[in-house]
Amino acid sequence: MYLFNLKFAAILLYFGCTTVQSVYGQTSTPADAQVQARANSLLQQMSLDEKLQFIASKYPSNASPGGGAGFIPGIPRLGIPDLNMVDSATGSGSTTQASSTFPATIALAASWEPQLSYDYGVQVAKQLRAQGFGMGLGGGVNLTREPRAGRTFEYLGEDPILAGELLAARTNGTQSQRVIATAKHFAGNEQETNRMGGNSQIDERTLRELYLLPFEIALEKSHPLSFMCAYTRLNGDYACENKFILTSVLKNEWKFQGEVQSDWGATHSTVKAINAGLDEEEGSDAGPAFLAPVPVRSVLVSRAVSQDRLDDMVRRKLYVLIASGVMDDAPKGGGTIDFVGANSFAQSVEEQSIVLLRNQSNQLPLKINAPKRIAVIGAHADAAVMTGGGSADTFHPVTGAFAGCGGLRFAKTDGCGWWRSPWLKVDAPLTKALQQLSPASIVSFAGNRDENVPFRDYTPDEIRDAVTLARNADVAIVVVAQPAGEDFGDLQSLNLANPSNQNQLVEAVADVNPHTVVVIESGNPVLMPWKEKVSAIVEAWYPGEAGGKAIANVLFGKVNPSGKLPISFPTHDQNSPTWGTDGAFATDPIYTEKLDIGYRWYDVHNIKPLYEFGYGLSYTHFSYSNLSVEKTDGHDMVARFSVSNDGHVAGAEVAQVYLDISSPGEPPRRLAGWSKVSLTPGEKREVRVVIPPKALRVWSLDGDRWEFVVPSKVEVGSSSRDIRLSSQ
Questions:
Q1: Low-confidence winner among 4-13, 25-34, 235-244, 397-406 (lowest mean pLDDT)
Q2: Backbone dihedral angles phi then psi of residue 96, each to the nearest 5 degrees
Q3: DSSP label at 210?
Q4: Enzyme catalytic residues
């Protein structure tokens, strides 16, 4: 199993020391003690004024130098550099500097490949340092409880172990480049609806087994130096005032040594927030309010906040700067970015993340030059749907502006919302990529070419033109899109929207061409009422700046798809665990489904999803055999089995290990580990998957403790519902 155990790269590179595991799973090092000693020495030399400038971002939201999101001024007399921070979910979020746009992180999750996640962290961090940023804010790991959630594309799926392992790998990659990584949004931030004031109500067992677990895994395996507390309330207290998660769990139980920063404008008090464990306030549009010098001085005088607590806040910030390497090698900005190399990497990520959902009669792969006439249809097929909206968007180096919104960052026109438009930003169309790959084919396009109004419905004439083109083509490729993003609000339905009549377009094309291929560009699951009418379906996610080339390579078989779904696709909106009676989003969500989210929900309620968690087809076939399970001296277990490539082309299979815990309240199946295996035709390989202790425990119902359990069954399969081997 790809379980990253890279150590705290920045510290080890700096001090060259080995590590020792502590009882809490945190890694304790001699180097860590040296970092703490150095932080204490600097703290003792700081004046009160200098300490106070160290706990709140200087500028209002996204007004920092270089187009950054936040800024902590340095202290030159002590050799402490400025710290400039920036959004970085899918690339640098600088509002003034050109950056690459990588595939959405939900696509990264679909690769099931921690090494790729590590490389992703490296590539983004290199651009951040070149731009002058020492901190990236892209470590989103909230789980897909609600498949319609607007920021699903920024996260890593519905399973805590998959999400935690991938965040750990990305964090290691980020911090290997001397850039501080953030884990967010801590915790219970699974929807956009009423995120600024909602109250997520989650029982402790569900909180620990699901929503805190990916953070815990990432902390153990990669040590993100910053945790960002969320906007929402959690069980009554704002996340940035929640002493249980910030101090009792994160700092005391998990022994977190880094800092807790607020989301932008997520601080609501001075005394309660500081005493709960908040270390740094990031400003709203008006700048910092509660941790600014005046209010903090006042509460120090009144002793509502102790001097020791202020010193702890500052010490943690110093620790972060030293441990990351930023203290001694701060980014200067003005560096050179290899945009060509980054584009190639973006293409590689997308190629490993595309999920082939349907392939009737082996419609795919297409043969180069064999389809004489290829019809490409859809409003975005001649441009691009790059990524989701909001803080995850990037300023592209080719266009130098944000097209579709007239280059205005906060434009309110053309459906762009409060942030810049991500939908039609750069000329990276599938049409050109297909033509280049199959030069003897005639590639023609039909769709909405009005880029100034990207979300309008197709007119009857446009649908008629698409049908005419498809009728005379050997293959029809219909590109559909589902825009979503931060503060755009959650989707009201998983039905395709923007344009709202995309389903009508697909069905009209499929009625006249039996060789219809649908390419989906989305950050969420989508409903597919036309599924049985089309011959092939490809989930491309938000594919980034090289999406056209990557999709073309998969369609023509230059790349064998190996992506697997990190989220379940329901057949109907009503099948999802959070739909309720009318699909309305709760302003104060109560997690009544408890542990039953995603594939667990479908298993418990015996509902057949449209496509299950872990599902994904290949152009070859894999078989499984010879399962054996053994215990180790500790709480680990090891599953061994063989995987064979029975087909005629090379491919990669994500072999997944699931456990039946058979404990009261537990779903019948939980992911425990996996291995992504690349095999040539006819090759057979033994696979060894270590099942870690965190997959073998439940939170006690009658006491505040973890209990380790022996699973009643170990299963191995190609998806959560395609089980090939069982220990029973």
A1: 4-13
A2: -130, -15
A3: I
A4: 263
